[in-house]
Amino acid sequence: MGIKYPLILINFKAYREASGRRGLELAKVAEKVSKETGVTIGVAPQLTDLAFVAAQVDIPVFSQHVDDVPPGSYTGHVTLEAVKDAGAVGTMINHSERRVRADQVDVVVKRARELGLVTVVCTNTPEVTAAMAALGPDIVAIEPPELIGTGIPVSKAKPEVVTASVDLVRRINPNVKVLCGAGITTGDDVAAALRLGTVGVLLASGVVKAKDWEKAIRDLIEPIIKRA
Questions:
Q1: Is 153 a domain residue?
Q2: Enzyme catalytic residues
Q3: How much is the pLDDT for 185?
Q4: Dmax over Cα atoms in the chain, in whole Å?
Q5: Which residues pair with 40 in a beta bridge?
Q6: Which of 20, 100, 103, 163 has the fewest C-beta atoms under 10 angstroms from its C-beta?
Q7: pLDDT value at position 41?
Q8: Looking at residue 38, what DSSP letter applies?
Q9: Which residues contact 193 (CB under 8 A, 6 or more apart)?
Q10: How many other β-carbons are positioned within 10 Å of the β-carbon of residue 165?
């Protein structure tokens, strides 16, 4: 599935606020706003809710993680085939809360490409971003872990991390798209991320923990609508 950019990707993590039916409710709010505005809003529900959510919304649904194993005797693992069967368009991998080795990322990226799945590889520094871009994922998402969940956006607190990552990716593999995350909560944060050369943002608590999900999402996409 091709992804239209800019992209707002909402990671539900393991938050209770977006678990089970509440996760579906949040996904439906994202779908509503996306359809009304034309802005691409993707969601990454908890793995146990992946098929449940993907079957009931018409926006990009991502797995939060996948393992580098084929179908077979791998108890407790999550395969690319399984997330595709569940209806996901792609998967995140190497989030700061679920780090994996570079060789595992390489396997996942190659096998995902064969299966037609989109890969979002999370990174924490420009150097790691460059290394991951060399593996050829569809998207890299730069997120300094010390800013995740703080409400302090990387696009403002550490813009040099974003710009350095964007510059390196353009040199190494210009086909790879760049998102930024960590502390993203407002439309101003998204506008700053776009000005720094990214094609969108990856965020979690800024939406999931908001009292009004629709208001939070509409605030995020306002600068994208104004640019259109």
A1: yes
A2: 95, 143
A3: 84
A4: 50
A5: 7
A6: 103
A7: 98
A8: -
A9: 153, 155, 162, 179, 180, 184, 200, 201
A10: 29
Domain count, the chain: 1
Residues 82, 192: Cα–Cα separation, whole Å: 36
How many CB atoms lie under 10 A from the CB of residue 131?
17
Question: What is the predicted pLDDT for the residue at 150?
Answer: 57
Q: Report the pLDDT value the prediction gives residue 149, as an integer from 0 to 100.
A: 56
pLDDT along the chain (228 residues), means of 10: 89 97 98 97 98 98 98 97 98 95 98 98 93 97 67 65 91 95 84 91 95 97 87
- Computed on alpha carbons and rounded to an integer, the radius of gyration of the chain in Å comes to 16
Measured in whole angstroms, the distance separating CA 84 from the mean position of its chain's CA atoms is 16
Q: CATH number, domain at 223?
A: 3.20.20.70
Q: How far apart are CA 189 and CA 156, in angstroms?
A: 7
Q: For 6-35, give one letter per residue: b (16+ CB within 10 A) or e.
A: bbbbbbbbebebbbeebbbebbbbbbbbbe
Position 3 in a domain: no
Is 1 contained in some domain?
A: no
Residue 2 lies in a domain: no
Closest CA to 194 of 224, 157, 217: 224
Q: How many helices (H) and strands (E) does the chain have?
A: 10, 8
